[in-house]
Amino acid sequence: MLRLCIQRNGLTRQRQYTTVSDSFPKQFPWLRTYGPAIPISSRHIELLLEPSDFYGKLIDLCDRSRRRIVLSSLYLGTSELENGLVAALRRAAARGVSVRLLLDYNRSLRGCPNSCTQLSGIAGDFSVSLYHAPNLYGWRRSRRLGNLREAVGVQHMKAYISDDDVILSGANLSETYFTNRQDRSILVPNSPDLTNFIVELVTIISDSSFQMDSNGIPYWPKGIHGYRHPFYGRRASAAFAWNVSQQIKQFISRWNKDKFDSNKVDTVVYPLLQMAPLRILSETEAVLRLLGECRIGDRLYMASGYFNPLSSLSDFLVTSKGSRSLLVASPQTNGWWGARGPGRFIPGVYQATTDKFLRDSAIYRDPELQVRHYRRPGYSYHGKGLWWYPRGSQHPCLTLIGSSNFGHRSWIRDLELQFAIATTNSDLQALFHKEREYLWSYGELLDSSTGSSSEYNSTTKLLLKLVTPFIQTFF
Question: pTM to 2 decimals?
Answer without folding.
Answer: 0.90
